[in-house]
Amino acid sequence: MNSVPLLELSGPPRDRGITHGRALAGRLRGFLDDSLARLGHLADRPVDLDALRPGIAAHRDVVAAALPDLAEEVDGLAAGVGVDRDAAWLLQLRRELMGYSRVTAGDCTTYASVRGRPVLAQTVDLNGNLDDQVAVLAVSGPRHRSLVLSFAGLLGYLGVNDAGIAIGLNLVLGGEWEPGVPPYLAIRHVLDSADSVDQAVEILCELPLASSRSFMICGEERAVCVESLGSQRSILEGADLAHTNHFLDPDFAERDEINIFAKNSSRRRLEAVREAGIPDAGDTASHHRLLSTPPILVPDNGDIRRERTVAAVILRPDLGEIRLWPGDPSTAEEQVHSLQQWSASGSHR
Predict the structure, then answer these.
(1) Which domain-ending residue is among 98, 127, 153?
(2) Is 174 in the same domain as 300?
(3) Distance of CA 259 to the CA centre of its chain
């Protein structure tokens, strides 16, 4: 398992992108050169950047209008890596450009609890063998500092900010995927901007999202799940919440596009969380055991096209902390990153 870099990103948006790009330039150029960010390994036909440029531009236009700071940061990433601007945008849009894949082995199991101290935890299930592309970003955003898990140059994936907001996500399939804000940039914007769970929900309800997702938001006293289907949103709330890869809102469930076999896998993982119960926030061993045990852990079957667990995390919004197991969590060593330690280092703004 490659080491996981911690990148401190501060300053204006373009500077943050340049810092990110320079720090990972060799790794990201190698990734882009690997059958165009490994998309060629996942597709049934060759993938060409020129053919993807119109779609990339359409998404970029929406992001630039909705989130101009993050659009500028992506452009800075391109400059830092030393690659074509569209290649840096491709890194933010891989999932959207791949489109629907109704047959999945898994695509994240997420849960949150505010019964006692708040906690959000999840597996990250991805195809493309992305466990060699994990990074942690310590971001000084325009309003908040945050710790963000990233894969392959993404500006965001999941994380926690200094306002006591943690956010994770799950893939769900439905509606029309069209040019818009990719969910990972939406999550980064939430972490940069949201002061509260209410504000995080408001942001996700207003952004023109490119694709369907479920977002799990955990504050110090509230846990909320936002399901996104086209322009519609459904809000689920409770002291204990869990989500996998099928819609839970009854109206949305009627429009679920997931393949029946993948849906059965999704249901098994959801039931496994519900049957086990969500451990207390401070019981790291029990969280780790839950996240490291099938069916919640999706093992590697050797097929790069199949999703498998490439990381697991515990997020503590009250502590501003990420506990990370990069790669297969059943064998990976734990890493702990905290906003408090970052503050103490004196290296933030």
Answers:
(1) 98
(2) yes
(3) 22
The pLDDT value recorded for residue 103 is: 56
Question: Considering its fold, how many domains does the chain have in total?
Answer: 2
**Last residue in a domain, options 42, 67, 98:** 98
Give me the average pLDDT of each 10-residue run along the chain (349 residues).
86 98 98 97 91 98 98 98 98 92 74 98 97 97 96 98 98 96 98 98 98 98 98 98 98 95 95 98 98 97 95 98 98 96 56
Helix pair 68-81, 49-66: axis angle to 10 deg: 140
C-alpha to C-alpha distance for 209 and 230, rounded to whole angstroms: 8
Please give the residue range of the domain that contains residue 70. 6-98
Q: Determine the Cα angle at 280 with ends 279 and 285, to 5°.
A: 65
The one-letter amino acid code at 18 reads I
Is there a domain that residue 1 lies in?
Answer: no
Instruction: Check residue 341 and give its pLDDT.
Output: 83
Asked if residue 215 and residue 153 are part of one domain, the reply reads yes
State the pTM of this model. Answer: 0.96
Quick check: 334 and 325 in contact, CB under 8 A? yes
Sign of CA dihedral 170, 176, 179, 181: negative
Rg (CA), the chain: 18
